[in-house]
Amino acid sequence: MKDLTPAQNSLDPIEIASRDEITALQTERLRWSLNHAYKNVPFYRQSFDAAGVHPDDLSSLEDLSKFPFTVKTDLRENYPFGMFAVPRDQIARIHASSGTTGQPTVVGYTQTDLDHWGSVVARSLRAAGLTPGDLLHNAYGYGLFTGGLGIHLGADALGLATVPISGGMTPRQVRLIEDFQPKGITVTPSYALSILDEYHKQGLDPRASSLQVGIFGAEPWTNAMRAEIEQAFDMHAVDIYGLSEVMGPGVSMECVESKDGLHIWEDHFYPEIINPETGAPVEDGEQGELVFTSLTKEAFPIIRYRTRDLTRLLPGTARAMRRMEKVTGRSDDMIILRGVNVFPTQIEEALMAVPGLAPHFQIELTRPDRMDQMRILCETADTSVDAAGCAKALSASVKQTIGISVKVDVGSTGSVARSEGKAVRIVDNRPKG
Predict the structure, then answer these.
(1) Number of continuous H segments (helices) and E segments (strands) in the chain
(2) How far apart are CA 84 and CA 39, in angstroms?
(3) Which helix H or strand E contains 236, and what residues bound it?
(4) Considering Cα of 400, then 402, then 404, then 409, what sign does the dihedral take?
(5) Pairing between strand 236-243 and 262-264?
(6) CA 14, 213, 244 angle in degrees (round to 5)?
(7) Full DSSP string of 363-403
(8) C-beta of residue 404 within 8 angstroms of C-beta of residue 372
(9) At what angle do helices 223-233 and 189-201 cross, to 10 degrees?
């Protein structure tokens, strides 16, 4: 694969600043953000007062742990605009979640917020090896979801030419990649596999495509899937992280020269890792739940937001800012099966290690009697594969590595439902209540 290492002289000064400089900037901006939220958002004023803390109590970054958390239900209970910190006429854009699991969460941006968002996404795209003038195939969904428009904002800021194809219509995705010859693609990893399937269906060689880097986010994915995608397309595959409550895509980014975790843009977002059960902060290097506080957001400041994503913080490498390890799962989508904690990424790793299986799968949970059961639905990579043998191998691997017995059904190629956005990994058919 081509060397896409960004030139050092193209980096923002903060990307190569000292830790002392970063800490000083964070402390200054954190004081502003706490005061901004307290003065302008009734929820935060009530929350801080109930906890017996005031923004003036913060004298160092460590003091942030005195302040209460914000959780998704807080955002839903203040639907639609109760969490906004500026008047409605200063809002330049609104995004929202789908609300499929409850009341939608609504987020807003001032023009300054959009400028900052474009800046961090541009920084992220540059960290992936893209440079002004490059062509980007943006297959993230456009609309209320922050993915498509967020990436587009950063692509404009970096000076890329963007193909705003969004998700879906997979045959057209392949045709435009072949016709337009983009250097980069932004897409969910699960949908990248659907595009790969379409390449094969059309009899085209994905390794001969123009793509040099894929920027993947919006769902957890493993290094095994990275290797699969890189080998299939002969391109670099890097991870981007974000969530609408904190900003959108571009909160952190994996650098193409190191691929060793995602550098958090700490001049705009302050990260913590907490014990998900106690809420107590843990040391860098220890795994726990990721918490973010915004440092520069005007319209929608967010204080100690519990993301539910499980990871750990590590020192910077390619950049001065700290890294977060790839997300291994979520504290609220963890499966507890017969007393064993299981994450979909663990199943994916086991599946990817079995030759002959395609990287598409779904987990079904049932309770036929008083015991929870797990069934893994997956498929063969081609018609010559011994499906029964693969099922036996995957079942044995899950038993050995995770410690649970599962049923494995291996279908023919294409039998697992495809996704044009985030993959639906878990189907819970257990009785409710």
Answers:
(1) 10, 21
(2) 11
(3) strand 236-243
(4) negative
(5) unpaired
(6) 60
(7) EEEE-SSSS-EEEEEEEESSTTS-HHHHHHHHHHHHHHHT-
(8) no
(9) 30
CA dist 311 and 261 (Å) reads: 10
In angstroms, the Cα distances linking 88 to 82, 93, 96, 201 are 11, 10, 16, 49
CB 364 within 8 A of CB 429: yes
Instruction: Look at strands 213-216 and 288-294 and give their pairing.
Output: unpaired
146-183 pLDDT, tens digit per residue, is 999 999 999 999 999 999 999 999 999 999 999 999 99
Backbone angles phi, psi at 78, to 5 degrees: -105, 20
The contacts of residue 340 (CB under 8 Å, 6+ apart) are 402, 403, 404
Instruction: At 181, list the tokens.
Output: 């010859």
Whether residue 158 contacts residue 126, with contact meaning beta carbons closer than 8 Å, is answered with yes
The pLDDT, as a whole number, for residue 433 is 56
Q: Which string of DSSP letters, residue by residue, matches 124-182?
A: HHHHTT--TT-EEEE-SPPSSSHHHHHHHHHHHHHT-EEE---S--HHHHHHHHHHH--
Mean pLDDT of the chain: 94
Instruction: Give yes or no for a contact between 358 and 224, defined as CB atoms under 8 angstroms apart.
Output: no
Residue found under tokens 């939608």 = 104
Inter-residue contact 324 to 264 (CB < 8 Å)? yes
Distances (CA, A) of 278 to 53, 281, 289, 306, 320: 19, 9, 11, 13, 30
Q: Which residues of 301-336 are buried (b: 16+ CB within 10 A; e: fewer)?
A: bbbbbbbbbbbbbbebebbbbbbbbbbbbbbeebbe
H helices of 12-91, in order, are 19-40, 42-51, 72-77
For residues 120, 124, 129, 131, the Cα torsion angle rounded to the nearest 10 degrees is -30
Digit-coded pLDDT (tens) for 188-239: 988 999 999 999 999 999 999 999 999 999 888 888 889 999 999 999 999 9
The string of pLDDT tens digits covering residues 392-415 is 999 999 999 999 999 999 999 999
Indicate the residue type of 120: V
CA pseudo-torsion sign 222, 151, 254, 107: negative
| Weakest mean pLDDT among 77-81, 188-192, 360-364 | 188-192
Place of tokens 């507890």: 336
Q: What angle do CA 372, 377, 379 make, to 5 degrees?
A: 165
